[in-house]
């Protein structure tokens, strides 16, 4: 069984994340303690709340640096929904607030021509050299998104009022705009690939 | 491209699934977690659990039901029924709900929607609107509450717009005239509401055939919710989707 530290960032509704990752074979440990998180083999930043509140929570606890160090060390890292957006430089959701900056990108809102929030299952298409991401339907619940995959990253694209970034991957870093924990069997298979629990079926 | 959703609904009372028309003559229809699992396997895109418990004890059970369902369910879960305060919502979210649906309590206290949305986000806040055509030949629809027993006189379109302005991220729109009748969704109502707001609209009340679902989606609904057609084993979400696909409607299969 792979142990996984999930970062508590405030108003997070962690029950679905915990249940989904447990089904995928992880032993889930929820923490907001930077010292404990720094020891994690697998680290996960869940997706809840608004951009500004999320960054404030990470900065207040020092978890922002823990995340950057974890990724620098090449260890498995998973970000979901707002978690992906917090990796960027900035977002229309909370102008003036600086993100983690791991991705050289700005997060914008979906255009007025489509339903917002995007609620539901969107078919996603991985880029040529993606290894974790596979084609399929993923479940989204978001109002903001990236429109281009940053240089140096593989990923997957979806379509909602134009192309948008459904997920990004590089080495053992996986950032999903969708919710793998709510994406049924397809999402479970993705989580298992990231966790390295494909064959254990625990 | 975003697909249209098929959403089975479970009415739950005191921890058991119940069936009945307009909440009358309820009878036991099984274990919520078992049914939830089956709906996911059968292609349900999301699940709605509506707690129809009549007592405080019954409602306290709802969190246990949600936790049991969450442990086995890998698709989104919306929970509604008896939510009057942010604390009620927090308890159900902690238990494993992804979205919270409010109805009567929001009509009497619209600021509840603002509080829920500020605390949990619009993606978590669903306004359930029960609509009935106005009586005496008048145009339009009015909001009904308390399981359809009270006509409020409030215009459905105006209420939908206010709910969205206050932070609701989705509308679960039930036609009280059609609910339980299996005579088809109220398509005029769906068109009126879905063109008035930008958030997704879920059609509810009146489903019987695949054609009813096609009609609702073509009228502007983003998703269709149904209870009895799935409970009674008449059809499954997958079977319904196969028919929708033949009409050129994009679904997850």
Give a quick set of tags describing it:
heterodimer, A: 202 residues, alpha/beta, Rossmann fold, 9-stranded mixed sheet, 3-stranded mixed sheet, 6 helices, 31% strand, globular, B: 253 residues, TIM Barrel, 8-stranded parallel barrel, 10 helices
Please, could you describe this protein's structure?
Helix content of chain A is 26%, strand content 31%. The mean pLDDT of chain A is 94. With 253 residues, chain B is α/β, with parallel strands linked by helices. Chain B is built from ten helices and twelve strands. In chain B, a hairpin with a 2-residue loop joins strand 1 and strand 2. Chain B is globular. The interface between A and B is large, with 38 and 36 residues.
> How many domains, in number, for the residues of chain B?
1
CATH homologous group name of chain B: Aldolase class I
- State the CATH architecture of chain A: 3-Layer(aba) Sandwich
Question: CATH topology of chain A, what is it called?
Answer: Rossmann fold
Spans of at least 5 consecutive residues with low confidence of chain A: none
Give the radius of gyration of chain B: 17 Å
User: Which strand-content bin applies to the residues of chain B?
Assistant: 25-35%
Described by the principal axes of the CA atoms, the overall outline of chain B is: globular
How many angstroms separate the termini of chain A?
A: 7 Å
CATH topology of chain B: TIM Barrel
How do the helices and strands follow one another from N- to C-terminus of chain A? Answer: EHEHEHHEHEEEEEEEEH
> What's the helical proportion of residues of chain A?
25-40%
Q: Which secondary-structure class do the elements of chain A indicate?
A: alpha/beta
Count of alpha and pi helical runs of chain B: 10
**Average pLDDT metric of chain A:** 94
């Amino acid at each position: 069984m792979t142990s996984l530290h999930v970062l508590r960032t405030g108003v997070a509704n962690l029950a679905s994340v915990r249940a989904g990752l447990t089904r995928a074979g992880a032993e889930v440990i929820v923490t907001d303690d930077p010292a404990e998180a720094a020891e994690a083999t697998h680290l996960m930043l869940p997706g809840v709340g608004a951009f500004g509140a999320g960054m404030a929570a990470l900065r207040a606890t020092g978890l922002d640096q823990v995340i950057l160090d974890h990724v620098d060390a090449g260890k498995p890292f998973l970000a979901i929904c707002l978690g992906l957006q917090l990796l960027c430089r900035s977002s229309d959701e909370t102008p003036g607030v600086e993100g983690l900056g791991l991705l050289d990108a700005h997060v914008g809102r979906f255009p007025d021509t489509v339903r917002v929030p995007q609620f539901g299952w969107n078919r996603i298409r991985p880029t040529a050299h993606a290894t974790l991401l596979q084609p399929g339907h993923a479940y989204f619940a978001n109002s903001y998104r990236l429109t281009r995959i940053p240089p140096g990253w593989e990923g997957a694209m979806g379509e909602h009022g134009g192309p948008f970034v459904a997920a990004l991957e590089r080495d053992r870093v996986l950032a999903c705009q969708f919710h793998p924990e709510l994406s049924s069997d397809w999402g479970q298979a993705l989580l298992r690939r990231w966790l390295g629990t494909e064959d254990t079926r625990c | 491209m975003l697909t249209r959703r098929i959403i089975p609904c479970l009415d739950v009372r005191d921890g058991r699934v119940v069936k009945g028309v307009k909440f009358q003559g309820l009878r036991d229809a099984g274990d919520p977690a078992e049914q939830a699992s089956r709906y996911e396997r059968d292609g349900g895109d999301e699940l709605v659990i509506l707690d129809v418990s009549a007592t405080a004890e019954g409602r306290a059970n709802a969190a246990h039901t949600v936790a049991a369902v969450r442990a086995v369910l890998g698709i989104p879960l919306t929970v509604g029924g008896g939510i009057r305060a942010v604390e009620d919502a927090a308890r159900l979210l902690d238990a494993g709900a992804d979205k919270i649906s409010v109805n009567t309590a929001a009509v009497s206290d619209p600021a509840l929607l603002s509080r829920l949305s500020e605390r949990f986000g619009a993606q978590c806040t669903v306004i359930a609107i029960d609509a009935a055509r106005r009586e005496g030949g008048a145009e339009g629809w009015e909001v009904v509450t308390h399981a359809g027993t009270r006509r409020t006189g409030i215009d459905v379109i105006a209420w939908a717009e206010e709910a969205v302005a206050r932070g609701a991220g989705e509308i679960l729109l039930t036609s009280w005239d059609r609910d339980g009748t299996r005579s088809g969704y109220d398509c005029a109502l769906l068109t009126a509401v879905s063109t008035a707001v930008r958030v997704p609209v879920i059609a509810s009340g009146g489903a019987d055939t695949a054609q009813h679902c096609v009609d609702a989606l073509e009228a502007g609904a983003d998703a269709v919710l149904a209870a009895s057609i799935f409970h009674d084993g008449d059809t499954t979400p997958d079977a319904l989707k196969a028919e929708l696909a033949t009409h050129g409607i994009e679904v997850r299969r």
